[in-house]
């Protein structure tokens, strides 16, 4: 029997008793994939929440809406050892489920991709330590797998030498989409984003949108990149959607319909439903590719002799890659002593190797340079309108 306040599991359990894992948002695209991966793991008793009817996938269903309130969420969470938060948009729900886990004495893992949500969750560190609860945030694709590639790349390049990091995600066609992800994409295309220039995080208010060359996105890795690469001067993250032509991106950016929250939400749900239906009919999504390029020169200074180290991950769709990292994290910590407090992968580096091993088993191919960094110019950076930027 263990007690989390002493670095143990969520609550007292008899030896050999399965670890109770609850997937919040378990009928969404990511949640279903996480359940599918964990449903075949020995020693895990799986359950899930959703605001919809139960499906025919693995796990016991708990009907639950975030709008049900803190006390009701805690009542459900308290029955489990770990909660895997796959709900979104994270920029909307922020730290609400992490706080509920802390108050419930239940371990927390998420696939959060919001800078502001990460900061809100990390601000709960004192509460989590006091209550003896481990909170692991950013264990999805970006951040999560991107964080792992950043750490591997820094190791190969020499962390002190890295001045600029550019992350590019290309999402292949024919894959399902979640409404929260689509709605977040709408906001990103129409609004600004945070990037790092000259060693300072700045806000660029107008997104230079182009789906094929990469839409500038935000990634919480921007808050930890200096811990990995102490001399960092620039960081940027770009996402290209093979299924989204540039004319559609321009329509999203300019049409007033997408500026209306209610209408935008309806369009996101409709778009996700249509895209997912077509993807299920096709059967197999096109691969997704994540590339992290670490350079010894700043983005504006790269020349023909700039050393660039490239780390690459290719997998069967971005959602499956996200789910694989989340499931890998559960498997790595379930039933084991985990120190309380709020951490990401950089703050919990012992998870790096087991998470990557699980990811490879899930079909993610990872290329890491083992020799000297390649020599050549940095990947071409998207133009940034920085006239209206400011510190965030």
Automatic annotation (TrEMBL):
Sequence segments annotated as region (Disordered): 368-392
Source superkingdom: Bacteria
InterPro entries reported for this sequence: NAD(P)-bd_dom_sf
Protein name according to UniProt: Saccharopine dehydrogenase
Top-level taxonomy: Bacteria, Bacillati, Actinomycetota, Actinomycetes, Mycobacteriales
């Amino acid at each position: 029997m263990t007690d989390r306040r002493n670095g143990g599991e969520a609550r007292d359990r008899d030896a050999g008793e399965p670890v109770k894992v609850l997937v919040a948002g378990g009928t969404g695209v990511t949640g279903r994939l996480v359940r599918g991966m964990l449903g075949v793991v020995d020693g895990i008793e799986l359950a899930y929440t959703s605001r919809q009817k139960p499906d025919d996938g693995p796990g016991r269903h708990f009907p639950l809406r975030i709008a049900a309130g803190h006390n009701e969420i805690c009542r459900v969470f308290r029955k489990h050892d770990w909660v895997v938060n796959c709900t979104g948009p994270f920029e909307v729900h922020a730290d609400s489920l992490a706080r509920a886990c802390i108050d419930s004495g239940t371990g927390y893992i998420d696939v959060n991709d919001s800078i502001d949500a990460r900061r809100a969750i990390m601000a709960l560190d004192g509460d989590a330590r006091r209550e003896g609860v481990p909170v692991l945030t950013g264990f999805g694709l970006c951040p999560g797998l991107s964080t792992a590639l950043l750490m591997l790349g820094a190791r190969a390049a020499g962390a002190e030498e890295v001045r600029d990091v550019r992350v590019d995600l290309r999402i292949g066609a024919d894959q399902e989409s979640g409404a929260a992800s689509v709605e977040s994409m709408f906001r990103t295309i129409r609004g600004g984003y945070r990037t790092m220039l000259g060693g300072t995080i700045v806000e660029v208010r107008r997104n230079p949108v182009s789906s094929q060359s990469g839409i500038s996105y935000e990634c919480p890795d921007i808050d930890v990149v200096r811990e990995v690469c102490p001399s960092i001067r620039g960081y940027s993250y770009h996402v290209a959607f093979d299924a989204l032509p540039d004319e559609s991106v321009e329509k999203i950016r300019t049409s007033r319909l997408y500026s209306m929250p209610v209408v935008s939400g309806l369009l996101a749900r409709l778009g996700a439903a249509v895209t997912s239906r077509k993807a299920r009919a096709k059967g197999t999504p096109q691969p997704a590719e994540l590339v992290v390029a670490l350079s010894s020169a700043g983005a504006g200074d790269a020349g023909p002799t700039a050393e660039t180290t490239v780390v690459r991950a290719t997998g069967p769709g971005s959602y499956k890659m996200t789910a694989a990292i989340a499931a890998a994290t559960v498997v790595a910590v379930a039933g084991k002593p985990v120190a309380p407090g709020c951490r990401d992968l950089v703050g919990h580096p012992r998870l790096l190797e087991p998470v990557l091993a699980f990811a490879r088993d899930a079909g993610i191919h990872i290329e890491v340079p083992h020799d000297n960094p390649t020599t050549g110019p940095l990947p071409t950076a998207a133009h940034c309108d920085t006239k209206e930027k400011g510190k965030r």
